[in-house]
Automatic annotation (TrEMBL):
Keyword Transmembrane among UniProt keywords: yes
Listed InterPro entries: Preprotein_translocase_YajC (IPR003849)
Origin species: Sulfitobacter sabulilitoris
Membrane topology classification: Single-pass membrane protein
Protein name (database record): Sec translocon accessory complex subunit YajC
Membrane-crossing residue ranges in chain numbering: 6-22
Amino acid sequence: MEAIGQFVPLILIFAIMYFLLIRPQQKKAKEHAAMVQGLRRGDQVVTQGGLIGKVAKVKDDGEIEVEIAEGVKVRVVQSTIATVVSKTEPAK
């Protein structure tokens, strides 16, 4: 019985670590993945590198084309999009 009593604090520490660190990180990762999957042409985005631009084209291979200035388009890996500044309305 004493052996179990010695492990209770250790188990509590792992439970607290899970709820304070691991679970919120997993939730944030799921939200980011959903945001990246919801990208469409015309959305204004910010990359992790700090570039701000409009999505010109969404490709199937995990890349998007972002127009950072008029006539200047760069290829960006979808997962490097940090935030979506403004969403476009879906076509009806």
